[in-house]
């Protein structure tokens, strides 16, 4: 009877260790997936910003000289930055 109890305890300990390792493995996979998700979200944000910039540049290029358009966009960006700084204060 005592040997049977020892055997059951050893089996339970082995099962516990296996489940703990499985949980640790799943936690590591979850962490990796969350990190990849954050990276993909940042990449999407960057790509959306590039799309917006290209659309804005095309809109200004349709109006005239590309160099003049770039200069106009640069001035607008500086003006927007000034407005943001004023709003932050």
Question: Mind sketching the topology for me?
Answer:
Layout: H1 2-61, H2 66-88
Helix pairs in contact: 1-2
Rg from alpha-carbon coordinates: 30 Å
User: Which blocks of ≥5 consecutive residues have pLDDT under 50?
Assistant: none
Q: Name the shape in a single word.
A: rod-shaped
Indicate the structural class.
mainly alpha
Number of helices: 2
Order of helices and strands: HH
Number of strands: 0
For the termini, the CA-CA separation is 77 Å
pLDDT averaged over residues: 88
Largest sheet: none
Helix share bin:
over 70%
The fraction of residues in strands falls at: under 5%
Folded structure, characterized:
The chain has 2 helices and no strands. It has one domain. α1 crosses α2. By secondary structure, the chain is mostly helical.
């Amino acid at each position: 009877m005592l040997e049977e109890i020892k055997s059951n305890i050893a089996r339970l300990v082995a099962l516990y260790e296996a489940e703990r390792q499985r949980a640790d493995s799943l936690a590591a996979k979850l962490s990796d997936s969350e990190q990849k998700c954050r990276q993909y979200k940042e990449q999407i944000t960057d790509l959306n910003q590039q799309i917006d910039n290209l659309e804005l540049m095309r809109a200004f290029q349709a109006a005239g000289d590309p160099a003049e358009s770039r200069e106009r966009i640069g001035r607008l960006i500086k003006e927007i930055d000034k407005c943001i700084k004023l709003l932050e204060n």
